[in-house]
Amino acid sequence: MDSTKTGLHDKTIASELNITARQVMATVELLDDGATVPFLARYRKEVTGGLDEVVITSIRDRVAQLRELDKRRAAILTSLEAQGKLTEALRGHVEAAATMAELEDIYVPYRPKRRTRAMTAKERGLEPLAQSLWIQDSQLDVEAEATKYLNPDHGIGSVDDALAGARDIIAEWISEDRQARASMRMLYLEHGIFKTTGARGKDVQGSKYRDYAEWEEPVAHAPSHRVLAMRRGEQEGFLTFRVLVSEPEALSVLHRLFLKGKGPAAEQVTLAIQDSFTRLLSLSMETEARLQTKAKADQTAIEVFAQNVQQLLMAPPLGQKTVLAIDPGFRTGCKMVCLDRQGNLRHTDTIYPHQGPDSAAKAGHTITEWCQRFNVEAIAVGNGTAGRETEAFVRSLNLPSDIPIVMVNESGASVYSASPIAREEFPDHDVTIRGAVSIGRRLMDPLAELVKIDPKAIGVGQYQHDVDQGILKQRLQDVVISCVNRVGVDVNMASPQLLTAVSGVGPQLAGNIVAYRQEHGPFQSRTALKNVPRLGAKAFEQAAGFLRIPDGEHPLDASAVHPERYVVVNAMAKDLGCTVKDLMKDRDRQRTIDLTRYITEEVGKPTLTDILSELAKPGRDPRQQFETVKFDEGIQSIEQVKPDMILHGVVTNVTAFGAFVDIGVHQDGLVHISQLANRFVSDPNTVVQVNQQVKVKVLEVDILRKRIALSMKAVPHAST
User: Fold this and answer.
1) Could you give the CA distance from residue 283 to residue 243 in angstroms, rounded to a whole number?
2) Phi-psi region of 331 (alpha: psi -120 to 50; beta: other; left: phi over 0)
3) What is the pTM of this model?
4) Which of 105, 501, 666, 679 is deepest in the core (most CB within 10 A)?
5) Range list of H helices, 115-223
6) How does DSSP classify residue 621?
7) Contact criterion met (CB below 8 Å) for 460 and 305
C-alpha cells in the first residue's frame, strides 16, 4: 500500500480516536503481521502505548474501512481513465474524497447506467439548448432558442418537445451534482420523517405491528429498535415504509443552489428542479437514507447484543463440582445426568416427578440416592418448560443444605444438543441427554459451554436476525475471543471449541492440540506446546500466555505471565534469593521488588506491573463470585403474578428499550427503559446487565398477551 496513504490513514485514525499516529502505525503493523487484539492489549503494551482491546479493535476496523475506500477510489480512477474523462482536477477531487458517499457522488455522472431520458435527449442534439437554459439569461428568448432544435426525424416536433428534452438533461445534471446530493442527504437524515402505513389486505391491527399501522417519526430521533421493527414489518408484508421530507423544503434547498435569477429560462430550470427532485433525487436519497439509518440501527443493535453476550459468557462459574443436571419436562419426564468434576458424563436416567404421587416418590428416591452415591455437590435445573415445578420438587426433598439447587438458563441448549459438536461428543445419546449435559456444564463453566453455540442462538439481543450478518458475526467473534482470552484456558481440559477462540490458535490448531493431548497425555509445560504439529513460533507467541497448565513444570505455566517473560521473573526471584514458586507465595517479598531494575528496551513498566499483579494472584479468574438465583416461592405461573408485587428476578436480556427479567413464571417481564431508574436512562446497560439479580415491582399483567410490565424505580436491585 502507498506509504503516503498509509501515513494519512494513521493520522486520520489517530485524530478520530484521540491517540498518537505512532500508536496507530505500530498497532496496524502488528495487526498486519498476524497479531490478535487480545495479544496486543495484554502483551505488547510498550509497542501500542498501552491501548486496550476497545481501541485496538477500533483501529483494526477503521483501517479496514479506509482500505476499502482506497480500493474503491482506485477502481473509480481506473474507470475514469478508461472512459477518457480523467482530468487532473477530477483526479484531485477523487483523491480528496474522505467518505464513500462523497466518492460515489463524484463518480455518479460517469458511472455506467441504464438508458435515461437525458441520454435520449442528448442523442437528439438537445444538450446545447439545455446549456443555454442553464445559464438563465433573463434576456434569452426561450421559444426562439428552442425552435432551432426542432427536428421531426428525431422526435422533436414542437417547442414543448425541445424544452422537455432540455429539462430532462438539466434534471439529470441536478441529480448528479455533488453539492445537491450532499444537501439532500443532510435534509433526509436531519429533517426526514419515517412514515409507515398498514399494507392492503393484511390484518395489521391483529399483528405485532399494529402500533405502526399509521406511524410517523423523525429520522434523526428514531431509536434503533423501532427502525428495525418498521423494516421487518415491511419485509413481512404488513407495512409500507417510507422515508420522506417536506417537498417545499427540499425544493427550497435546490432553488438556492441552482436558480440564478428570473425570466423564462429560469422558469424552465425551476421546472427541471421540480422534476429532478420528484423523479430522481427523492428516490435516490430515500434509498440512501434507508441504507444509512439501517446501518446505524444495526450498529446499535449489534453493540447491545455484543454486550449481552459478553455478560453471559463472563457469568460466574460454579467451578469444578460433581453436578446432577436436570432437563425438565412434564409429559416426557425429566432427563437427568450426573457429571463429574471435569464435566464428563457418568450416569443418565429419566424421572417423572409430575405424573402422580407414585412417580413423584420414585423420582425423589432416585435423586436422593444419586446425591449420596455420587457425592453430588450441586444440582442444575433448566429453566424451560416445567423448570420451576421441577425446582420446587427438588427443593421439597430436604437434600443436604450444602447442595445448592440452581436454575440455569437453557437458551440455546437445544441448538447445541442437535449440533455436530454434540453428536461427536455423545454419539450414543439422544438430544435430550445432550441438552441435560449442556445445562449442567453451563453451571460449572458458562464460558466453556457457551462457546460451542452460535452466539445468535443464546437468546439475548434484539433483531439479531435483521442486522448485517457479516458485521454481527465479526463483533460476536470479537466478544467470544476477548472473553476466552481474558479468562484463560486450561489446555489439558479445554474442548476444541474453547481452544479455537484462543489468540493465534483457530480450528485447525485446536484440533491438533486435542489430538496431541489424547495421544501423548496432558501437557506438562507450555514449552511442550511447540511439539504440536503446525504450532509454530508465531502461533506459540500469540497463544502461550492464554493457555494455562495447572501444576506445570514451571510455576508460571499456570499464570498469565507470557513464557517470553519468564526470564524476568526468574531474575526477580534470583535477586531475592528464592525460587519463583516461593516468590509467587510471598506477598512481602513481592512488595520489595524494584521494577525499575528490570526495565529494558523491550520490557517496560506496563508489562512489569502486569507481571507483579499476576504474581500476587496467579491465574486468577476475572469473573465474579458465583451466587445462586432464588425465585419467590408460590409464584410459578403468570396467573399468580399480581400488580404491586415485589419479586426477585434475574436479567435475561438487555435491549435499547429496556430489560427483560425472569421472575420464574416461564414468561419474562419487561422493565421499560423509563422504569429502570429514578433518573433518566439513555443506555439500559448502564443500569443492568445480563445475569444480574434484581428486585422488581409488578406494574401490569396481561395474561392473554403474556406480557408482564415491571419497574425497578425505587426498588432495591442489588444482588440478593
Assistant:
1) 10
2) alpha
3) 0.87
4) 501
5) 117-123, 127-135, 142-147, 159-176, 178-191
6) -
7) yes
Query: Of 171, 177, 167, 297, nearest to 230 (Cα)?
Result: 297
* CA 387 to the chain's CA centroid: 30
Measure the CA dihedral 692/695/696/701, to 10°: 90
With 0-12 / 13-18 / 19 or more C-beta atoms within 10 angstroms meaning exposed / middle / buried, residue 570 is middle
Q: Are 562 and 547 in contact (CB under 8 A)?
A: no
Length of the chain: 720
**From CA 437, how far away is CA 205, in angstroms rounded?**
43
pLDDT at 436: 94
Q: Please, how many CA atoms are within 13 Å of residue 397, restricted to the half-sphere of its CB? A: 24
Which grid coordinates are listed for 452?
Answer: 460451542
Q: Which residues make Cβ contacts (< 8 Å) with residue 489, sequence separation at least 6?
A: 498, 499, 502, 546, 547, 548
* Cell numbers for 174: 441536478
Closest CA to 491 of 425, 561, 445, 550: 550
Whole-number Å distance between alpha carbons of 281 and 288: 10
Question: For residue 211, what are the contacts with CB-CB under 8 A and spacing of at least 6?
Answer: none
Q: Which three cell numbers stand for residue 573?
A: 526471584
**Angle CA(440)–CA(446)–CA(447) in degrees, nearest 5?**
140
Strands 489-490 and 547-548 turn out to be parallel
Domains of the chain: 3-110 (1.10.10.650), 117-306 (1.10.3500.10), 323-444 (3.30.420.140), 499-616 (1.10.150.310), 638-711 (2.40.50.140)
Cell of 262: 428570473
C-alpha radius of gyration, the chain, whole number: 33
**Distance between CA 151 and CA 167 in Å, rounded?**
17
Nearest to 448 by CA among 407, 501, 410: 501
Q: Can you tell me whether residue 52 is helix, strand or coil?
A: coil
In which order are the strands placed within the sheet that holds 193-198? Answer: 214-218, 193-198, 239-244
d(CA 479, CA 304): 12
Q: Smallest Cα–Cα separation from 719: which of 689, 682, 697?
A: 689
Rounded mean pLDDT for each run of 10 residues along the chain, 720 residues in total: 70 95 96 96 95 96 96 96 94 94 94 92 96 95 95 91 96 96 97 95 86 94 93 94 97 96 94 97 96 94 90 91 95 95 94 95 96 96 90 92 90 88 92 94 94 82 83 92 95 95 96 96 96 96 96 94 96 95 93 94 93 91 83 86 91 88 89 89 85 91 90 67
Burial class (CB in 10 A: 0-12, 13-18, 19+), 231: buried
Packing angle between helix 21-32 and helix 3-17, nearest 10 degrees? 120
Residue 544 CA, chain-centre distance (Å), reads 27
Backbone angles phi, psi at 650, to 5 degrees: -135, 135
- Span between the terminal Cα atoms of the chain, in Å: 56
Mind giving me the DSSP string for 587-608?
HHHHHT--GGGG--SS--HHHH
Give the angle subtended at the CA of 360 by the CAs of 357 and 365, to the nearest 5°: 125
Phi and psi, residue 331, nearest 5° = -70, -45
Cα torsion through 406, 412, 415, 420, rounded to 10: -80
DSSP state of 657: T
CA–CA distance, 272 with 134 (Å, rounded to integer): 10
